[in-house]
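dude i think i finally got it to work??
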Amino acid sequence: MTSKIKSIEGLSQIVRNYDALIIDLWGVIHDGVSLLPGAAECLECLKEFGTPYAFLSNAPRRSYPVINAMQNMGLSMDLVPIVLTSGEATWQALKEREGPWFDGVGRNFYHIGPVRDKNLFDGLSIKLTDHPSQASLIINTGPWDTNESVEDYMDILNIGVDLGIKMVCANPDLEVIRDGARLICAGALAIRYEKIGGEVIYFGKPKRPIYESCLRLLNNPDPSSVLAIGDSLLTDIAGAATMGMDSLLVLDGIHKDQLANDTGANVETVLRQECKKFGFLPSIVIPTFHW
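look at this
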């Protein structure tokens, strides 16, 4: 991790260096409730500049409700060319059930997650059960309520492990900031499930398959010519590194508390300390998603 991290104030400084962009949503474009300041204006400039881009999100819902939500936030639909979510990837996998991981997995499932995520099950030949003991699969889209912790789910997770029930995680994120509040995500529950002996399959960033799907939607640019933009070291920056893409970390996102300049240390020094456990760094950093 000795390479220099480039710091920029606006996307216009580097966009000409790339053939395509992959852009995260939550923490970059919106906070789950409202568009972030400057994001829509940046997208307008990007569209005018002409570099193709796609939104790649770990939202545990189908792509279409995510698009609808952005429209309700006030984002013009002509600024939303491509959206691929981890929920969409999960839905496709549950529909096709390909590969040995699904061998022996029945059609009854137990859902950990809020009602708003149930569009994930539309059109699938599966049956929702009322208790994990009745299921052969746990589908995890995140906590039921915004004020819960992983500890609140231990009874359910222990039942699943004791019965040998596999888990599908539709959002590998550990946490998110929604309207200023920090909340756990499905990934936090999935990691605990693995730690107590459960088996989990993840769909979404930083896994290669969702990036490969996104690149196909962008007409297959060379990954080395693509810039991945996001606010999470664990998913956005890790995924970019896995794919051989440059990455742009938005500092005012999920890591803003860790990267706060309270001690006077410069951003790169703090980033290097924070990234030691990951083994990689972003190529570029930007305060917020601005042109």
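The first strand starts at residue 6 and ends at 7.
im so relieved honestly
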